[in-house]
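User: Here's a structure from my thesis project, written as C-alpha cells. My advisor, Dr. K., wants to see whether a designed sequence matches the one we expressed. Can you design one independently, without my sequence as a hint?
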C-alpha cells in the first residue's frame, strides 16, 4: 500500500569515500526493500541525495547511512508531500557529487565560513560584501536574495570562468573583496567557496543549509528573499516554510515554466516550452511526444509511468 504522506529527505556530505563504488549495491538494495525512491550520488568526494517515501522507511535509510562512522554526523532537511516526489530509485557513481570540473578543490579542507540563516541578513546587508548566487540562471529567475549578483550561468561548471571575469570580484586598493555565496541546499556554495579560497579570497562566507534552511528558519516579515526557490522534484518550487510554490515544470527540459509559457505556441506539454523549444530536434520532440502520450495513458489507468524522468537531487 502506498503511503498517504511522503517524507522527502535531502542531504549531502563532503567526505573521502575511497570505497564509494563498493557501497552502491547494499545501499540500493536497502532503499528498494523500504520502497524509498529518489536519487543518491556517490563519489570519492562524498554523497549527495534526495530520497522520499514513508517516514519510517526514509528514516531507516538515514539510520543505515549514519551507522557508518564517516557519515555519523550526516545532516538532512525534511519536507512532506501528499503525492510521491519521485518514481524510481537510482544510486549513481560519479566523479564529483557536484560538478565543477576543477581539480584540487576540497570543501572538507578549504570551504568558506558558515553563516547561520539568522545571521545571513546582517552579512548580505553589508555594502562591502559581494553577494553571489551560485545557481543556474533558470533557478535565479524565479527567486533570489535582494542585492545578489546573478552570474547568468547555465551549469555550475561555468561558475569558475565567471569568477575570473567578474569586475565585482576584482581587488580594490590591492585587496580582494569579502564574498558571500549561496545555493539551494548548501552543496554548491561549499564547493564554490573552496574554489574562491583557492583563488586567494580570504574572507569568503556561505549560507549554512542553503536557501532551503533560510526559508525554513527565517520568518517572512524578516526575510530578504524575493520570489520562490526552485527545487529538483515534483514540488518544482517552494516559499517560506518550504510550502510548495506556484511554478509549473517543463517535463522536457526539467526547468520551471516562465510566466505565460503555457500560452505560447512553443509550449507543448511534455515536449517543449519557450525556453527549450529551439534546443531539440524534430526526432527528439517526437520521442518526447510519445513519452507524454504513454504517461497520460498510465495516468488514466491510475498507474505509475516508470519511464518518468528522475529529477536531480535538490540539495544544491
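Assistant: Designed independently from the structure alone:
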Amino acid at each position: 500500500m502506498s503511503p498517504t504522506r511522503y517524507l522527502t529527505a535531502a542531504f549531502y556530505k563532503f567526505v573521502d569515500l575511497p570505497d564509494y563504488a563498493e557501497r552502491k549495491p547494499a545501499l540500493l538494495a536497502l532503499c528498494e526493500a523500504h520502497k524509498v525512491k529518489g536519487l543518491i550520488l556517490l563519489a570519492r568526494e562524498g554523497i549527495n541525495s534526495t530520497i522520499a517515501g514513508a517516514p519510517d522507511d526514509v528514516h531507516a535509510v538515514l539510520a543505515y547511512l549514519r551507522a557508518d562512522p564517516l557519515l555519523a554526523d550526516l545532516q538532512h532537511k525534511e519536507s512532506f508531500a501528499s503525492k510521491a516526489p519521485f518514481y524510481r530509485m537510482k544510486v549513481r557513481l560519479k566523479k564529483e557529487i557536484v560538478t565543477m570540473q576543477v581539480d584540487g578543490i576540497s570543501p572538507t579542507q578549504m570551504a568558506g565560513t558558515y553563516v547561520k540563516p539568522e545571521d545571513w541578513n546582517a552579512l548580505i546587508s553589508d555594502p562591502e560584501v559581494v553577494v553571489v548566487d551560485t545557481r543556474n540562471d533558470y533557478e535565479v529567475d524565479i527567486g533570489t536574495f535582494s542585492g545578489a549578483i546573478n552570474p547568468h550561468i547555465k551549469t555550475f561548471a561555468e561558475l569558475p570562468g565567471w569568477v575570473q571575469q567578474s569586475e565585482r570580484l576584482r581587488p580594490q586598493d590591492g585587496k580582494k573583496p569579502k564574498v558571500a555565496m549561496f545555493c539551494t541546499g548548501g552543496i554548491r556554495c561549499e564547493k564554490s567557496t573552496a574554489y574562491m579560497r583557492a583563488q586567494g579570497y580570504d574572507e569568503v562566507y556561505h549560507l549554512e543549509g542553503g536557501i532551503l534552511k533560510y526559508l525554513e528558519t527565517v520568518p517572512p516579515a524578516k526575510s530578504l528573499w524575493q520570489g520562490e526557490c526552485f527545487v529538483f522534484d515534483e514540488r518544482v518550487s517552494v516559499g517560506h516554510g518550504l510550502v510548495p510554490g506556484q511554478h509549473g515544470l517543463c517535463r522536457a527540459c526539467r526547468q520551471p515554466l516562465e510566466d505565460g509559457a503555457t500560452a505560447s505556441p512553443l509550449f507543448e506539454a511534455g515536449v517543449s516550452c519557450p525556453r527549450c523549444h529551439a534546443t531539440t530536434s524534430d526526432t527528439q520532440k517526437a520521442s518526447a511526444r510519445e513519452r507524454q502520450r504513454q504517461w497520460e495513458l498510465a495516468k488514466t489507468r491510475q498507474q505509475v509511468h516508470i519511464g518518468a524522468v528522475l529529477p536531480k537531487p535538490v540539495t544544491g
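When you compare it with your expressed construct, this may help: The longest helix spans residues 282-300.
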